[in-house]
Amino acid sequence: MKISEIRVFQVDLPLVEGRYSWSEGKYVEVFDSTVVELVTDDGLSGYGEVCPLGPFYLPAFGPGARAGIAELSGSLIGQDPTAIGPINQLMDRALLGHPYVKSAIDMACWDLLGKVCGKSVCDLFGGKFGESVVLYRAISQRPAGEMAENIAGHRADGYTKFQLKVGGDPADDVERIHAAADVLTDGEILVADANTGWRVDDAIRVVNAVRDRDVYIEQPCRSYEHCVTVRRKTSLPFILDENITGIEALMRGHGDGAMDVINLKISKVGGLTKARQIRDLCVTLNLPMTIEDSWGGDIITAAIAHLAHSTPESLRFSATDFNSYVTVRNATGAPQRVAGQMQASGEPGLGIKPDMDVLGKPIAVFN
Ligand code: MG
């Protein structure tokens, strides 16, 4: 089997609640998603998606994904997409860095491998643990009272884990965390995610002011060293996300005792292949994970479900159903949230069928 053609689609994904806001005044209203279709010489197609959280969350942006895929296309045409190890090595040799670009291609290769084998990606990743995957809901940054009210709305949809977007003014953030903690019920989990938005002194003030609340602190500062400084000064459980860019970062953090949980995003680390390596290492290290991506539509939600559902439940801190945050469906067959949980499809590959009316004409075709 060889890749004979690569088709690239661009899809806008507007947010259901209008605007998603997080640290330092950043926000996105319409997500710029890229879908890639790998067409093979025997007529099969595999699909992948990459959707950065705007151009200023990670070093990634929508047009960059498309430019990167164009750059890699010449190396990929004629290659066997089911030989996922060699495909990843080839991409890493042809283009240094740019993990998010490679993520959509790697995802499409797994979709194809599953279709060839008649197995779901979840089964290829070792099989399902449990009936379903428990999801968290991100609570967009708003005034404290509104964020606490929004928790109640999402609780009604079955969510039991809530991630507050903080990383703003420290006094406002203290108010946000207290307001949210006040409305939590038994068994619910609260995370305060600063998304690198605090200075060390801000972060220390916040963790001191909420030290008696049951809350996880996520990625307070931009640099790893600053996060470790904050970690040393708090007894609150601690999550690293933006700094966990790959296995070396994970090993360093583990050796330093820098975190209790990591946030594993598929495109941040370069695709499902590398995310699975990190997942498996975390299982060995007994380190819990939130399994997700930077953002996405139905195709990315399906990929998250396969990776998350094949992860032992005891180490699955949470996962994300991005397709419920946006108003556009770019594929059918993707997991749909039921009572705050989702399941990986048992269909071959990712188990999705792209909606070609929504994808429209490809913006680029390489062959
Ligand atoms: Mg985070």
Explain what you see.
With 367 residues, the protein is of the alpha/beta class. The protein folds into 2 domains: 3-118 and 356-366, 2-Layer Sandwich (Enolase-like, domain 1), CATH 3.30.390.10; 123-353, Enolase-like C-terminal domain (TIM Barrel), CATH 3.20.20.120. The protein has 13 helices and 18 strands. It has helices at 62-76, 84-94, 99-117, 121-124, 144-156, 170-183, 200-209, 224-232, 247-256, 266-269, 272-285, 298-309, 356-359, and strands at residues 3-14, 20-21, 27-28, 30-40, 45-50, 133-134, 136-139, 161-165, 189-193, 216-218, 238-240, 261-265, 289-292, 316-319, 331-332, 341-342, 353-354, 364-366. The strands form 5 sheets. Strands 7-8-9-10-11-12-13-14 form an 8-stranded parallel β-sheet. Strand 7, helix 5 and strand 8 form a beta-alpha-beta unit. The longest helix is centred in the N-terminal third of the chain and has 19 residues, at 99-117. The radius of gyration is 20 Å and the shape is globular. The two termini are 15 Å apart. The mean pLDDT is 97. The site of magnesium ion (MG) has 6 residues, from loops. Magnesium ion binds at residues 193, 195, 218-219, 241, 263.
